[in-house]
């Protein structure tokens, strides 16, 4: 049989199977309710002609794209990558793809980005959105079906999955206190980060329990370069321990401190937050609060597919972090 010079079309399959193009479309979309023998003949013709249905045409016919959006503030962060990987793999089992949009830590760009990407898919997952509560409330109606990760909002009808950052940072602070540290620095995250506000609440809880401890707040950020840039300020603070906003900031800080001749943990103890894969392989291995990122992705998809199918999505869940003590923390020496 001669090789075809062009891709087979739906009309080619219809002619080969002696049916109408509409019948081919219904068979390929799983909506044919006629004679099973006709459906089998169409599928056989499609196979013989090596017919590949157009995803765009199928989306138009069904009124859906079989795709969901995942909007994230910084895709370079391995914590968000882990959530995305789990979400994508779980969604694939139900025949869905995940489209990714990165807002680059820009609260002002995020609402427009979310609205734009939502128009290209069936639903959206907002992961750690940086926009304000007012903006999120105003936008939520346009985004449904919507699932929130790391953002609780009682004024929005959307399933929410979050991490208990408040108790997690308090546990890390208590760990440092138990090691004898009384002067601690907190390297803050992005000002627009809701999880940073929760961390500050946790530090306030810790301070109330331990009035003899001092926790100084220093500007930080969310990336390794932010941590590295803060090394001199940490040195000058006189603190013996640092609570970094996340693991990336902690890893950058350790590198910056070591370049200044400051030993970790001999001179200064450092903790992170997230337990990204790199955390256990840094030198020294990083003490951190471990977050179940893979489970966040799985549970986010379970709630999303329920919304798409007009089913109850289940209860909101807040996951408690787990303290992982490694070699970046040690007893206070001064």
UniProtKB/TrEMBL annotation:
PROSITE patterns: HTH_LACI_1, HTH_LACI_2. Residues 8-62 form the HTH lacI-type domain. CDD domains: HTH_LacI, PBP1_LacI_sugar_binding-like. The keyword Transit peptide does not apply. It holds the Pfam family Peripla_BP_3. Keywords: DNA-binding, Transcription, Transcription regulation. InterPro entries: HTH_LacI, LacI/GalR-like_sensor, Lambda_DNA-bd_dom_sf, Peripla_BP_I. The keyword Plastid does not apply. This is LacI family transcriptional regulator. It comes from Protaetiibacter intestinalis.
């Amino acid at each position: 049989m001669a090789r075809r010079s062009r891709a087979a079309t739906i009309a080619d399959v219809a002619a080969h199977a002696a049916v109408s193009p509409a019948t081919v479309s219904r068979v390929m979309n799983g909506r044919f309710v006629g004679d099973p023998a006709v459906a089998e003949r169409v599928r056989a013709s499609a196979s013989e002609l090596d017919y590949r249905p157009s995803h765009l045409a199928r989306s138009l016919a069904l009124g859906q794209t079989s795709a969901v959006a995942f909007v994230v503030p910084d895709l370079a962060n391995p914590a968000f990558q882990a959530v995305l990987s789990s979400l994508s793999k779980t969604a694939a089992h139900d025949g869905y793809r995940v489209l990714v949009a990165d807002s680059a830590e820009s609260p002002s760009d995020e609402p427009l980005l979310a609205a734009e990407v939502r128009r290209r898919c069936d639903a959206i997952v907002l992961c750690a959105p940086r926009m304000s509560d007012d903006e999120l409330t105003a936008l939520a109606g346009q985004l449904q079906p919507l699932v929130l990760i790391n953002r609780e909002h009682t004024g929005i009808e959307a399933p929410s999955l979050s991490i208990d950052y408040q108790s997690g940072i308090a546990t890390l602070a208590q760990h440092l206190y138990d090691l004898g540290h009384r002067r601690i620095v907190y390297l803050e995250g992005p000002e627009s980060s809701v999880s940073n506000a929760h961390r500050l609440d946790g530090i306030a809880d810790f301070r109330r329990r331990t009035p003899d401890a001092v926790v100084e707040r220093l500007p930080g950020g969310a990336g390794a370069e932010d941590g590295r840039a803060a090394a001199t300020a940490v040195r000058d603070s006189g603190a013996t321990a640092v609570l970094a906003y996340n693991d990336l900031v902690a890893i950058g800080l350790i590198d910056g401190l070591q370049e200044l001749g400051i030993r970790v943990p001999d001179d200064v103890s450092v903790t992170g937050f997230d337990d990204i894969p790199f955390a256990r392989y840094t030198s020294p291995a990083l003490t951190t609060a471990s977050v179940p990122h893979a489970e966040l992705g799985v549970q986010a998809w379970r709630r999303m597919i329920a919304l798409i199918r007009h089913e109850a999505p289940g209860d909101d869940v807040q996951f408690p972090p787990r303290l992982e003590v490694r070699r970046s923390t040690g007893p206070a020496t001064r």
